[in-house]
Amino acid sequence: MIVHWHRRDLRPGDNRGLARAASADEPVVPLFVLDPSVLEHASPVRVACLLEALESLRSWYDAHGSDLLVVRDEASAAVPRVATAHDAATVVWNEDYSGLARERDQAVRAALADEGIAAESVHDAIHHEPGSITPNQGDHYSVFSYFWKKWRDRDKRAPADEPESSDLAAVSGDPIPSLADLGFDEPEATPPTVTTAAARERVADFCSGPIYEYAAMRDYPAESGTSRLSPHLKWGTIGPRELYAATERAADRAERDADRESVREFQRQLAWREFYAHVLAFNPNTVTEDFSGYDNEIDWRDDPDALEAWKAGTTGYPIIDAGMRQLRADGWMHNRVRMLVASFLTKDLLTDWRAGYAWFREKLADHDTANDVGGWQWAGSTGTDAQPYFRVFNPMKQGREYDPDAEYIREYVPELADATAADIHGWHDLEPAERERIAPDYPGPIVDHAERRDRAIELFERARGESSE
User: Which residues form a coiled coil (predicted)?
Assistant: First the structure.
């Protein structure tokens, strides 16, 4: 027999590792390991998504005469034990690129070698593995635009086929544990449905129409202008090749050049995801360390009250508070708003990006180490291709531009339900008595944006050695 060790590839189709195992002329034993050293970095909403995806995948295996073995143990113990129990000569899995994952995989390889069992890993989660798109000098690109030009012109593999029932071993496993079994509380957010069926339905819906408006509508949080596929890409309930093939078919159906350009803009966002995976693969320390160093340490503020107001969505900046409350309610946040809340934390509250990253890791159903680290370091002006430190998002202007009627804000900040859009977007300029009259339960701004913008620029100039103050 041969074992396929599922990790972030919780699907039967377009799964290169599973397809490789199924090609070996040996019955495939499907395995997933609930590793406590990995789960200690998890959160209730993500584990809820994980368990739903596992149940869905297990149902597929059951319908094909097999089962998904779900084992609770350290991976370095569980994987060789399962392989030995089923007399498997080889274990196959798909690569992951975080430092934690690589340490785990190294330990599993060593444990398998001790048992005389071969280990084989396959690149599956992204189209072009780290090291395959490189500049003339260096291991990887640190500027996205150069990476994108090469990424878009590279041929993409076709989706891998699902295994046949005859490829699978007739095994039977124990029930999948519950959240409580694993020591997690029920999530604060309502988790999205994370199954391959749900992913394929969303891809089909998105590529049948909204993808042609993506370029125009993607920045407006009150609109359904984004794909909402990030939880599926996080857990691998849709394969990257299957998704890309669907976007190519959408481009072929496009009737206007603008429609094709909109499809290309969505593909560009897929390339951003891979860009950050490449950066993390070569720089695993960026999870805790700045990618771009400065001459001096950045003098971040330590203000627990401000951080808690940001987390709670009570900063008195409506677009910021709407985003933070959406995060807690949905386990997801619109991408434009992610940039705004990250900028607000790092530039208005002058708080270390790592505090924001930790909160996103706790609350996001789609938390992806590479993407979130990349996004937070971009906002904090410490990462690859980062937002220049002197460009600071104005939350009032951004609210007026991207939520002009305040629909998104009112949805997540009900205290402002009866306020006009003008009052909402001008909240910072209203007198305290006027704010009390309009929305007595909603706070005033906790900081002055203009003053904090100047302080943020000074902070970074000192870090760059450009100011003696």
Answer: none
Cβ–Cβ < 8 Å for 88, 3: yes
Q: Does 389 carry a binding-site annotation?
A: no
The answer on whether 200 is annotated among ligand-binding residues is: no
pLDDT class of 468 with cuts at 50, 70, 90: low
> Which residues share a beta bridge with 440?
none
226 is in an annotated binding site: yes
Q: Which residues contact 20 (CB under 8 A, 6 or more apart)?
A: 92, 120, 122
Question: Domain spanning 126-155+197-282 has what CATH number?
Answer: 1.25.40.80
Q: What SS3 class is residue 435? A: helix
Q: Can you identify the CATH homologous superfamily of domain 2-125?
A: HUPs (3.40.50.620)
**398 annotated ligand-binding residue:** no
Each residue's pLDDT tens digit, 286-303: 999 999 888 899 999 999
CATH code for the domain defined by 304-462: 1.10.579.10
- Residue 467's pLDDT band, with cuts at 50, 70 and 90, is low
Helix axes 99-114, 75-85, angle to 10 degrees: 40
Residue 300 DSSP label: -
Which residue, 170, 167, 178, is CA-closest to 54?
A: 178
- How far is Cα 268 from Cα 306, in angstroms, rounded to an integer? 35
Ligand-binding site membership of 354 (annotated):
no
The answer to whether residue 207 scores a pLDDT higher than 60 is yes
How is the chain split into domains, by residue range?
A: 2-125, 126-155+197-282, 304-462
Name the pairing type of β-strands 28-34 and 90-94: unpaired
Which secondary-structure segment (H or E) carries 158? none
User: Has residue 469 got a pLDDT over 80?
Assistant: no
Torsion angles phi and psi, residue 265, rounded to 5 = -65, -40
> Residues 6 or more apart from 8 whose CB is under 8 A from it?
94, 96, 125, 234, 235, 236
Give the list of residues 6+ apart from residue 468 with CB closer than 8 angstroms, or none: none
How many Cβ atoms are within 10 Å of 304's Cβ, its own excluded?
9
Q: How far is Cα 424 from Cα 439, in angstroms, rounded to an integer?
A: 10
| Whole-structure pTM value | 0.94
Q: Which tokens is 266 given?
A: 């969505």
**Is 269 annotated in some ligand binding site?**
yes
How many other β-carbons are positioned within 10 Å of the β-carbon of residue 397? 12
Give me the DSSP letters along 67-87.
--EEEES-HHHHHHHHHHHTT
